[in-house]
Amino acid sequence: MKSALNDYQGADTNTILLVILAILLPPVAVLVHQGELNSKFWIALLLTLLFYLPGLIYALLVIFGNNYKK
């Protein structure tokens, strides 16, 4: 029970840090979340270069979209 609680708290901390990173640098947050240079990173980079807000929204969707898939 204690280890499950610690894992849960760690996940919240990681998510909060990823959200802060996504606000500052959306493509870097996607890269850290995915752990590799994949198409999601390039999409986030392109959207951020075109205009900041779409890149931010996409990064948040990537971060929160994968947290709930098991």
Automatic annotation (TrEMBL):
Gene Ontology cellular component terms for the protein in this record: membrane
Residue spans crossing the bilayer: 16-35, 41-64
Keyword Kinase in record: no
Pfam hit, one: Pmp3
Compartments it resides in: Membrane
Chief location bin: membrane
PROSITE patterns in the cross-refs: UPF0057 (PS01309)
Keywords: Membrane, Transmembrane, Transmembrane helix
Similarity section: Belongs to the UPF0057 (PMP3) family.
Annotated protein name in UniProt: Uncharacterized membrane protein YqaE (UPF0057 family)
Organism: Neolewinella xylanilytica
Lineage: Bacteria, Pseudomonadati, Bacteroidota, Saprospiria, Saprospirales
